[in-house]
Amino acid sequence: MTIDMSQFYQVFFDEADELLAEMEKLLLNIDLDAPDDEDLNAIFRAAHSIKGGAATFGFTDITELTHVLESLLDRIRKHEMTLTGEHVDAFLSAKDVLDMLMGGHRHGTAVDVAAVQTLSARLHGLSEGKAAAAPAPAAPAAAASPEADASGNFHLRIELPAVSAKDVDALAGELGLMGTLSRDILPDGRAAFTLVTSETAETIVAICAFVLDPDALRITDARAAAPAASSPVPASASSLHDTAVPPAAGSQAAAAPAARPAEESKNHGRRATDKEAGESSSIRVSVEKVDQLINLVGELVITQAMIEQRIATLDPIQHERLLNSASQLSRNTRDLQEAVMSIRMMPMDYVFSRFPRMVRDLAGKLGKKIEFVTKGAATELDKGLIERIVDPLTHLVRNSVDHGIEMPEKRRAAGKNEAGKLTLSAAHQGGNIVIEVSDDGGGLDRERILAKAKQNGLPVSDAMPDSEVWQLIFAPGFSTAEIVTDVSGRGVGMDVVKRNITAMGGVVDIRSVPGSGTTISISLPLTLAILDGMLVKVGDEIYILPLGYVIESLQPAPVDVKEISGQGRVVKVREEYLPLIPLYQIFAIDPKSKEPSEGILVILESEGKKAALLVDGLVGQQQVVVKNLESNFRKVAGISGATILGDGGVSLILDVAALLRSSRQLNADSLCF
Amino acid sequence: MTEGKTILTVDDSGSLRQMVSFVLKDAGYDVIEATDGRDGLEKARTQHIDLVLTDQNMPGLDGLGLIRALRAIKKYKTVPILILTTETGEDIKAQGRAAGANGWIVKPFDPAQLAEVVRKLIA
After folding, report:
1. Interface contact flag, A42 B59, Cβ < 8 Å
2. Best of B1, B7, B12, B15 to disrupt the A interface by mutation (most A CBs within 10 Å)?
3. What is the 3-state secondary structure (H, E, C) of A370-381?
4. CATH among 3.30.360.10, 3.40.50.2300, 3.40.47.10, 1.20.1420.30 for B6-122
5. Tens of pLDDT along A248-300?
């Protein structure tokens, strides 16, 4: 039977990836003073499992490295050695090197042989330098096997330990089936065989193992002048008696299956059939296929909405069964849509998991102490977005470590804990995911940012609110650490960060308090393909508001609406004055009424700013499939996309964030009522 | 022959479990997979098993623990149990024998040999 092992490679690689990631996570969290036994065991097991798989699938380089790693870990978990920072560093490098080796097997990427050797030497050094407890076990599969002759036969000399004549006969019978056997008696009365066979020494050991202890067995090359030199059983196992054998005896032969009966030659008749390949818990599908599916479901949603609209006019008694079926179709469609969308969703952990290591390395390089915390790693986000958020997030985390968190001395002087805290969090908020990078460092320096902005010719005033000052660091060219401040030199490429996030339909917000830290908050839509929309009507037009922005809708009393000279109107909602944005004005439409008290106000919130949008009325609420306006028509200010409604008509989706931004000036001044 | 014989393979490593399972299914056995000792014990308790092939090093209940637990169950007193392991030390073998294992298969192993061992044990 021949088996194409390569069919299991992918599973092995995926598994090893997971194990390595897990190992790294455990190593990063380990407490050197009091390492948790369970953690040490888990790290050991990870190395052990990778070794087992690599050996089985023939990745010798990985096997060798994990073996050294495993032996060292084994001694640490057995408390024969104390875990030190040096160990952790070496283990982390080992993880990187294993990643590289795996890349080599997987994608044929270059492998830095020198790095492997250096690491191997380093691990060996750690084994020998710190532990006198036990000698490092030899690498497995290192012992030489007897060589086959020209016709592929092995000439084996098999010396048995003292066993009963019956057992010797039984063995002779079994072995006789494998080739040409001759028997003789050793001077001390034990039996010995000489066997010419195509089977390997391991097979012989396996057969004998049913009768006697394989370690007491001595198999040598019958042709060799000095049998011990080419013995498949290591010297330590050459003892003729059933004495204890040091565990270092890790040769192929001694390690061979101890319970392997075999009397016939291997059966080559059976062929492995690929279709029977073990069932896998996941399949790999190209993103295009998923996107095509999502697009089709989008069309289905539209069709379903059309049907719903058509049948709404039917007599519910006469058409009861049709209506029931239609409502079932509607439920199924929604479930289908959710299921399909969830295919593209991935947990934020995909991004977060790469940071602990980066922060650790960076902090080490800068001489800072940083406690890194992640929250909400299970929060899911669309795959397309998750991949695009990696770079901006990396940039922000790096900035926080580099410029946000102060040096230990400085923190001590400021009465803070020496170790800075860096938090990366993700959470769902309405239809958005909010990702925050938060540090407890020195905060942004308002004065220096303003000074730099003036120097750059940006329109600023000293009276600007903090939130607007912080946004200045996103201006192009507003960069380099020494210019902003020695404490919080953000700015390197921050304009790129902002641009990337905006391109994803996201918003960046900064909160910073001098002396106690900075939080950069990124708000992204969960997916770009479908949104829950509120349909509003102005004149004869229907617009769609993404539901995530909508807080409430109400009809104001005339007394709550006030005019501010030259700045438009504000409306008082729950003791708060909000700028009033008349939608009819923005798109130059004839409304049913221009009076807020006769229409409906939809209170919207984005980026922490609220406003009231005046519309004629609410039409309904439904999921809409977003069709890109830019790729189908052109960019229109105030509009983020379009969709097809149930009646087949086209409706525009409002860009709420942009609407609110345009009302900002008004907002800032109108707050001083 | 192999008709109707059921083998339980216990391994926390999915790739090895899949491979073992593939090899044994190819040889005509029914294979039940378990992801660790506890899972294996549970499956052995509730189903009929003709041979157990278990990894040694697993989180929670390890291979030796599983074997001890199985041997304590009446119907598993004599069912062949093999340990699949990378460990070759004498002490671990002695522990395995004491626990009630019938034999070892050392990783890496040849799929054909695995099938052969199993065939011999439950033919």
Report:
1. yes
2. B15
3. EEEEEECCCCEE
4. 3.40.50.2300
5. 433 444 334 433 444 333 344 344 333 344 445 677 778 788 888 888 887 88
Tokens of A456: 């750059």
Find tokens 């042709």 and name the residue: A223
Candidates A18, A56, A205, A273, partner chain B, best to mutate (most B CBs within 10 A): A56
Q: Which value does ipTM take for this structure? A: 0.75
**Strand A420-429 versus strand A432-439 pairing type:** antiparallel
pTM (2 decimals)? Answer: 0.45
Q: How far apart are CA A539 and CA A529, in angstroms?
A: 28
Q: What SS3 state is found at A430?
A: coil
Closest A-chain CA to B105 = A257
Q: A290 — alpha (psi -120 to 50), left (phi > 0) or beta? A: alpha
Cβ–Cβ below 8 Å for A255 and B88: yes
A530-670: which CATH number, 3.30.1490.10, 3.50.50.60, 2.40.50.180, 2.120.10.80? 2.40.50.180
Averaged pLDDT for residues A219-226: 62
Q: How far apart are CA B62 and CA B60, in angstroms?
A: 6
Whether the CB of B107 is below 8 Å from some CB of chain A: the reply is yes
The radius of gyration computed from the CA coordinates of chain A, to the nearest angstrom, equals: 36
β-strand pairing of A530-538 with A617-625:
antiparallel
